[in-house]
Design a protein that fits this description.
The chain has 398 residues and is an alpha/beta fold. The protein folds into 2 domains: 118 residues, Aspartate Aminotransferase, domain 1; 234 residues, Aspartate Aminotransferase, domain 2 (3-Layer(aba) Sandwich). The protein is built from 15 helices and 11 strands. The protein has a 7-stranded mixed β-sheet with strand order 2-8-7-6-5-3-4, with helices on both faces. Strands 1-10 form a two-stranded parallel sheet. A two-stranded antiparallel sheet has the order 9-11. Helix 6 links the parallel strand 3 and strand 4. The longest helix has 28 residues. The protein is globular, with a radius of gyration of 21 Å.
């Protein structure tokens, strides 16, 4: 039977890893894979994480299952981090947390939850969006639609986005990026979030907010503005959270599905459905990453250390953005690429064409996704001149 199964192309981003690893050019640069890198090009284990792991090693007494919703301590910690410790939603018992295998796992839980419990509802994704969003929701059997986000001039097109949202059928699901939009790096302002809220209320839409980069934009609380705004003014919403970036727990697969209902009783109803969804997907989530997060956020000392480390990572990324634009000045391109300094998060929609990206890879061993999305966190100060010179060459010879 297997002889009938066709080979399919591998994941484009993961494929860059293989190509980069096989490249023998000592000048090679990886701007494709979405991980944070320090000045030495490493993806470090945070000091707060190391200390939390050391404590867990001494305290852990079992490797038994933790249940479909995961560790309750983890759920409580993530709810407070995402919604705010003083959130009236928490006080009213309106929010449920289900620990998941990474933010991707949380998104799949959300997709299956919508498919089973909200039959016939379509989901609307920004154009562009994280490519795996398409695969996740399509695999769950949801009807996919797109709303405009970035225009042909590589700018955030908020008027077009808002106009489209105003036409979405009542009750459909709209996926919003809380901050550090992947892949574009263009985020909504607070005023724009206020306008989105009004449209969501008017159209009775169900927001699903993907919150994968809390702390990597403007700050842990600042980045939560849109999430908390919607949560405090709407009866119902879905949030998917990830600890991959802000805790550096990429391989530990630590995420969370948050469901918010009108009241405590309805929360218990949807929470029971989330447990079934998790059970049918993977039964129980992995424990270690969640235990690390809980240990950090329940310790005043470790929480402060972690917050300092998040600030350090964020400042490095934002600094690299401005330094990169400055590196383009000798080539007369700083104004053309000035928007990169204004974007937020790890990623930037550079505006480079697929052909220009191909040339960067083939001629300069600089790797990025063919859409022109670059991982700014993959840059290092000593490589900025090389990257700027290469981009100038492919742009001016286009």
């Amino acid at each position: 039977m297997f002889q009938q199964i066709a080979r399919v192309p591998g994941d484009a981003i993961l494929g860059l890893i293989d190509a980069y690893n096989q490249d023998t050019n000592p000048e090679k640069v990886d701007l494709g894979v979405g991980v944070y890198r320090d000045a030495q090009g490493n993806t470090p284990v945070l000091r707060s994480v190391k200390e939390a792991e050391a404590r867990l090693l001494q305290q852990e007494t079992t490797k038994s299952y933790i249940g479909s919703h995961g560790d309750p301590r983890y759920g409580e910690a993530v709810l407070a981090l995402v919604l705010g410790e003083a959130s009236p939603i928490l006080a009213a018992g309106r929010a449920s947390a289900t620990q998941s295998p990474g933010g991707t796992g949380a998104l799949r839980l959300a997709a299956d939850f919508i498919k089973v419990n909200l039959p016939g509802k379509g989901i609307w994704l920004s154009d562009p969006t994280w490519p795996n969003h398409l695969g996740i929701f399509e695999a769950a059997g949801l009807k996919l639609n797109k709303y405009p986000y970035v225009n042909a001039a590589n700018q955030l097109d908020f008027p077009a986005m808002l106009a489209c949202l105003q036409q979405i059928p009542h009750g459909d699901v709209v996926l919003l990026h809380a901050c550090c939009h992947n892949p574009s790096g263009f985020d909504l302002t607070r005023e724009q979030w206020d306008q989105v809220l009004e449209v969501v209320k008017e159209r009775e839409l169900l927001p699903l907010v993907d919150f994968a980069y809390q702390g990597f934009g403007d700050g842990l609380d600042e980045d939560a503005y849109g999430v908390r705004l919607l949560a405090e003014h709407l009866d119902e919403m879905i949030i998917t959270s990830s600890c991959s970036k802000n805790f550096g727990l990429y391989r530990e697969r630590t995420g969370c599905l948050i469901l918010i209902a009108r009241n405590h009783e309805e929360m218990l109803n949807i929470r029971s459905q989330a447990a079934i969804t998790a059970r049918e997907n993977y039964s129980n989530p992995p424990s270690h990453g969640g235990a690390i997060v809980s240990e950090i956020l329940q310790s005043t000392e470790l929480t402060q250390l972690w917050r300092d480390e998040v600030t350090e990572m964020r400042n490095r990324i934002n600094g690299l953005r401005q330094d990169f634009v400055d590196a383009l000045k000798p080539y007369g391109l700083s104004e053309q690429f000035a928007f990169i300094a204004e974007q937020r998060g790890m990623f930037s929609y550079t505006g480079l064409t697929p052909q220009q990206v191909d040339r960067l890879r083939d001629e300069y061993s600089i790797y990025m996704v063919r859409s022109g999305r670059a991982n700014v966190a993959g840059m290092s100060t000593d490589r900025l001149d090389y990257i700027a010179k290469a981009i100038a060459a492919v742009v001016k010879q286009a």
